[in-house]
Amino acid sequence: MGGRIVAEVLIGLLELDPSGFLSEPGWRPTLPAPFGGTGNFTMSDFLAFAGVDPASRGF
């Protein structure tokens, strides 16, 4: 029950934000150039950007 309330609040905030990505129909995600830059990136690129991939954590 609590998870649903939190999810509905977050979705409501996203829907009401006039400058958010949901209000921009042409929005495409991008990462800085070393990680892809054009919106064509993989999950491992995203994890490397966030600094949580095994290589950046020393594994």
What would you say this structure looks like, in words?
The protein is mostly helical and 59 residues long. It has one domain (2-50). 39% of the residues lie in helices and 0% in strands. It has helices at 2-16, 43-50. The longest helix is centred in the N-terminal third of the chain and has 15 residues, at 2-16. It is flat, with a radius of gyration of 16 Å.
Class from secondary-structure proportions: mainly alpha
What separation lies between the terminal Cα atoms?
Answer: 38 Å
Percent of residues in beta strands?
Answer: under 5%
Query: Taking all residues together, what is the mean pLDDT?
Result: 83
| Helical segment count | 2
DSSP helix fraction: 25-40%
The number of distinct structural domains comes to 1
Tell me, briefly, the overall form.
Answer: flat
Question: Unreliable runs, pLDDT <50, ≥5 residues?
Answer: none
List the helices and strands and how they pair.
Layout: H1 2-16, H2 43-50
